[in-house]
aldehyde dehydrogenase (NAD(+)) (Phialemonium atrogriseum), 492 residues
Amino acid sequence: MPTTLPPNSPFYRFSTSIETRCFINNTFVETADKFPIYNPSTEELSAQVSQAGVNEVDAAVDAAEKAFPAWSELSADARGACLRRLAELMVESVDELAYLEAISMGKVAAHYPGEVRWAAALLQYFAGLATELHGETSLSTAGMLNLTLRQPYGVCGAIIPWNGPLAAFAMKVGPALAAGNTLVLKPSEKSPLTALCVAKLIPKAGFPPGVLSILPGFGAVTGAAIASHMRIRKLAFTGSTRTGRIVKQLAAKSNLKHVTLELGGKSPCIVFEDADLAAAAEAAALSIAGNSGQLCYASSRVYVQASIADRFVEAYTAAFRKAMGKVGDALDPDTTHAPQADAAQFQSVMGFIEAARTQGLEPIAGGRRVGERGYFIEPTVFLDPGEGSQINREEIFGPVAVVNTFETEEEALQRANDTEYGLYSSIFTNDLKRVLRFAKGLEAGMVGVNCTSPTAPFDMPFGGFKQSGEGREFSFKSLDSWTETKTVMMKM
Ligand code: NDP
């Protein structure tokens, strides 16, 4: 039996009515196969969730196909109005959403309103862009009026990770539906509860049946059925580089559907001796401490100029500890240090730390579990483990940072770029010419100058170079990947 909170808890009323069924054609559907969600703060059972199989994916695609003609013919303004209303309803449900994310993947409930408002604002941003989707016209061929139409694909699929469930939800749902597509979305099996809670709001927001279906389940079953579905025309995926490679293959082997990929990272943050040291230490620490290190664009590889290394490491380590703060149940209003999302994630992060130890690399801070209940890990820092070490090269996805020292600008750029990832890079310096050289030279989809992630404005493209992805989210540009362009040539 899933745990129910005591009646005096502010979250009690939400704990007695958790939605766990698939959402297809504006109706909740229970399936025979269930999978458990455990609370990572307490290790107690939170819910048993219906697993969507191939039949549910087919039913959602049928409904999406049926809904598409009317939805895509609706005025862009009317589609935007549904997205705006959904955003408002999400903000009204902020406490319930905070409760559900805390008991599934351990987000700190006290911090969560900001994340819900962020997701709602993103939906509103795309609601506004719906009316801006235009083609081009050309009179450059004698006797002809030529033009382009930007048209939705039809039925699209989205597969999202667990680390920012509502953020990833909004990043797919906003542009897909604004552009007139219908969508079948699979949340992660670690964190499906907020998407299913939002599903309750979808009919209230005015979306017709079939426009947006939500199918919880495992990647190898539900995700693979979406990625290889013959009637899904476009797939937007966010997750690890390893799975990105698999879904791209499934898409290619089925109907060669268009694919956009938002993948992993091992983002460098370079700090020069002329930078504001305290500001750089704090920003770099906040980037890796956020969400307990479970962010794709976290600054997990720091490069600091040798002349300031001692002072920087001291300030950085202190700022990292302060940013993680107090361990506790994610529902407790005083907690600031979230647990890792589940047992597997905890073991994976501890596995990287232990593997480094067996190679003779001892962290200069942290490196241990906190307490014996819940999946909490200390903020952990390794110093100069070697450029080729596993801890410096692989995405760990936990509160584990590597600080490397360097001597020259050329060396810093070469080492920062020496990775197959290319999501987000940062540089801290007051030398404008150096800023320009690095803005050009860093191999990353996003470059922060005297700032680092989570800085990423909606109106600018978001995405990675190299094996960090393909395509861009956010910004008007992202609508390109949710529409097809048709060229029409007309003799006058
Ligand atoms: P995974 O790649 O493990 O999973 C992502 C999604 O893919 C999940 O819904 C998962 O399902 C599904 N999946 C797994 N296997 C398959 C398959 N064979 N076919 C289809 N779908 C499948 O990533 P995580 O969920 O662990 O998320 C962490 C990763 O996501 C990190 O690498 C992080 O960097 C990256 N990420 C990237 C972002 C970006 O914008 N670039 C943003 C956020 C995260 P299941 O439910 O079984 O897990």
